[in-house]
Amino acid sequence: MxxxxxxxxxxxxxxxxxxxxxxxxxxxxxxxxxPEKLEQNDIKANExxxxxxxxxxxxxxxxxxxxxxxxxxxxxxxKDGLTYMDVDYQANMNLLNEAxxxxxxxxxxxxxxxxxKLRNLKICDAKELFVEQLKQSGIDYCIVRPNGFFSDMSExxxxxxxxRIYLFGNGELRANPIHGEDxxxxxxxxxxxxxxxxxxxxxxxxxxxxxxxxxxxxLGIKPKITHIPDWVRITILxxxxxxxxxxxxxxxxxxxxxxxxxxxxxxxxxxxxKEYFLKLNNKTV
Length: 285
Fold this sequence. Notes:
Layout: E1 3-7, H1 12-23, E2 27-32, H2 36-40, E3 47-50, E4 68-71, H3 84-101, E5 106-110, H4 122-135, E6 140-146, H5 154-161, E7 165-168, E8 174-175, H6 180-189, E9 197-200, E10 206-207, H7 208-219, E11 225-228, H8 230-243, H9 246-258, H10 273-284
Parallel strand pairs: 1-2, 1-4, 2-3, 4-5, 5-6, 6-9, 7-11
Antiparallel strand pairs: 8-10
Helix pairs in contact: 1-6, 3-4, 5-7, 7-10, 8-9
C-alpha cells in the first residue's frame, strides 16, 4: 500500500481530500497547524504531524517512509503577516526538499487554471515559481489545475442576499467551477494517473449572468443586476493597489482579474452550483 503525505489537510480542499483518502482506506499522514479541524470533520489520519510548513525545522523528516505527497498548500486569504512567496512558493519548496531527501516517488500539487498565463498576479507568480522547481526536481509529478471552487462563487450568493449583483461587462463571461468534493476525487486519482498536468472544472458551464440568476431564484428575490464597465474594474484595481498593502491587494487583484476572463476547463463531477447555493440558503434560514 502506498503511503501518502497530505499537506494543507485542514484547508477547504484538504478536508475533502482527507475524507476521500479515508473513504478509500488509504494510509495517509496529515500535516496540520490545527489538528482539531480534522477531528471536527470526523477525519482520522493514520499519522498526524502538527507543524508549520513555513518552518523547515518543524517538518524535518515529514516525508520519511512516504511514497506520495499531495499538497494543497497556499494562501486563500492572507493573514499572519505571510506573503504568497512565503506560503505558495517557499512552504511548498520546504516540503519538496523533504520529499527529495526521503525518496518520495510522486508529488501532486494543486495550482490554478491559467496560472502560467497570469504570472502578473502575485499569487499565480508564486505558484508557478514552485511549479517550475517541481518540474526540475527529478520527482514524478502531477500539477492539478482547477478553474475555481464553488466556495469562490459564494460572493454571488452573498450579493444576491443584499439585493443586487454586480457584474463586469455584459455578464456573458463563462466558468465551470468545481466542488471541493469532486476535485478531491481527481487529486486522489492522480496518484495512479500518468498525467503531468490536469486541467479540471465542474459539470456545468455557466455565464456570470446565469450564476446570478440561480442565486436570485433560490432566494426568491427579483433579479437586480448591475453591469459595470471594464474601465471601472481597472480603476478600482489601481486604487486598491495605491491605497492598500500587498496583503490586501493580492486577493482583490486575483478575484477581479479572473472575474474578467473566461475560466473554462474540462467538465467533471456531479455536484451543481444550484445544490451548493441551496445549502448556503439553508444555513441562513
